[in-house]
């Protein structure tokens, strides 16, 4: 579903990605972990076209998407959430979900009323019901509790009907009970929509609970890859975290 081959990206003198390679099979949930500054978010930025790599290739469903414009990548079927919540705070939950639908339809289809307002509204309501936001869909996004805003972000990412969903620390700021709930929610969403998911997360309980495999990054490339059990047993991984005095939360 997704493959990175030797992707490198420098910001000035800093190597954010240093020949990063990763292969994510269809239907899986892949954990992407690593110390702060390891390059995890940069991987998402490269895959979604927000950042152009200096070298290397990104393949999606076997075709190169390297260097494509972000809106084209969305239309191919890749969607993401952000480490810092990026919602239209004053717009309703419904409007927050409708906007990416319009964007993913593209200018021509939107002008021709491809989905139609009513159809779009129906689809957005269905999506919000599904993620458990049915009762609050007319409320401004900014008035929702934090945990619900995180869910709304995921609903919004689903609005463009992606095949690959990239989640950047969706459980940030949640307590262990909330983050377990979110983990189960992500697994349900994957099953319901037949998605492939890449999940950046510092909450190890979330990663351990739902990921098929975990890729551990350090200094812009892969330090370790294995099952959740193999990963927590790895001395290399432990060292990478302890060496930077950051231990995954709730490990
Ligand atoms: N647009 C940019 N311009 C300059 N430096 C950047 C840019 N984006 C990322 N970096 C740097 O690249 C490195 C990797 O950043 P990245 O955000 O990918 O790390 P991360 O693994 O997501 O970290 P965290 O766990 O803190 O979110 C960091 O040193 C960061 O400061
Ligand atoms: Mg990050």
Describe this entry's structure for a reader:
Helices cover 40% and strands 24% of the residues. The protein is α/β, with parallel strands linked by helices and 251 residues long. The protein has 2 domains: 1-77 and 162-251, Rossmann fold, CATH 3.40.50; 90-161, no CATH class. A hairpin with a 2-residue loop joins strand 1 and strand 2. The protein is globular. The protein starts with a strand and ends in an 8-residue tail after the last helix. The relative contact order is 0.18. It binds adenosine-5'-triphosphate and magnesium ion.
Care to give the gist of this entry?
This is ABC-type branched-chain amino acid transport system, ATPase component. With 251 residues, this protein is of the alpha/beta class.
Essential attributes:
six-stranded mixed β-sheet; 10 strands; four-stranded antiparallel β-sheet; 2 domains; alpha/beta; 251 residues
- Kindly estimate the percentage of residues that lie in beta strands according to DSSP: 15-25%
Number of domains: 2
Shape descriptor reads globular
State the secondary-structure class.
alpha/beta
Bound molecules: adenosine-5'-triphosphate, magnesium ion
The name of the CATH architecture of the largest domain is 3-Layer(aba) Sandwich
Counting DSSP H or I runs of 4 or more residues, the number of helices is: 9
User: What is the name of the CATH topology of the largest domain?
Assistant: Rossmann fold
Separation, N- and C-terminal Cα atoms: 29 Å
Low-confidence stretches: none
CA radius of gyration is 18 Å
> Given this structure, which CATH class of the largest domain is correct?
Alpha Beta
The chain-level mean pLDDT equals: 90
Count of distinct strands = 10
Oligomerization state: single chain
The SSE order reads: EEEHEEHEHHHEHEHEEHH
InterPro entries: AAA+_ATPase, ABC_AA/LPS_Transport, ABC_transporter-like_ATP-bd, P-loop_NTPase
Protein name: ABC-type branched-chain amino acid transport system, ATPase component
Organism: Thermanaerovibrio velox DSM 12556
Keywords: ATP-binding, Nucleotide-binding, Transport
